Request: fold
Amino acid sequence: MPLQGSLSIERMCQLAGTSRAGFYRFLQNHVPREEDMEVRSVIQQIVLEHRRRYGYRRVTAELKRRGMPVNHKRVARIMREDNLLAAQPRQFVTTTDSKHGLEIYLNLARRMKLTGVDQLWVADITYIRLLAEFVYLAVILDSFSRKVVGWKLDRTLNSRLTTEALQQAIEARQPLPGLVHHSDRGIQYASAEYVALLKKHEMISSMSRPANPYDNASCESFIKTLKREEIYANDYEDLEHLHDHIEEFIERYYNQIRLHSALGYRPPEEFEEQSRQASETNPLASTMVFFQESMRISSTGLMGEGTQTPSLPQTPFLLGESRALKHV
Reply:
């Protein structure tokens, strides 16, 4: 504040014909005006860069990454005033058909402590409605990093859809034997073609408990994000147009740029790279741990009739892990 000489605030307010409250209100509104406009400008820039996909929490996290720590309530207020709040999700519809006579497997995913990538993959299917037809999307995520490692879009919901998504993931990641693949009990994941591909690459099958979608929560979360931030925000001419948009969203936005709250507001690829650097410093950090009692649960009861306990492939990777189980 400029020098006021010997005059008090109260005396200056009397001479100016204003109240003290009005004077302090003027200071409060006038001084941070430029700073407020700068924050508002950066918020608008972030929202436009992410095509209105970010809510106020991710905008707040992105502001902090840019060296502008701003309270989330202030961000929410500005976004509400400028009509920049993200689109809200629509009702989710399931596509699971678990009424089949094929083998189902013990749920291993909820008994795992993940410490690195390619230890647990989770898979799911969703439908997308175009103007004249329904199409289906199969996705596979790495549960540790939330990165989409495989996906396939097609007009037909069958085992070929899921198998091609899995094949893409395998070619891209080249996982070691012993990776756990978790899905719901849908027929596409229990089919002979799909199970044969898992066994060929020495993966361990895992399936959700009956009527419990929360076992596959990370994949469900991605699908909701995809629909809210991409599908519901755009109109598509045909399957090819939709494919291009989904490829852009997954490969160049979600995996590389979008901040993920479960990863400390980091993109999946950045999170994987930082985890990889940490594991090089401490190789023991990338050990996968099973709780041993999971292998002794009956194949009936809570797991559901017909549930199969998977046999572990006899590889050096898992034999080394089995010795660690004695200490869990």
The CA atoms of residues 139 and 174 lie 17 Å apart.
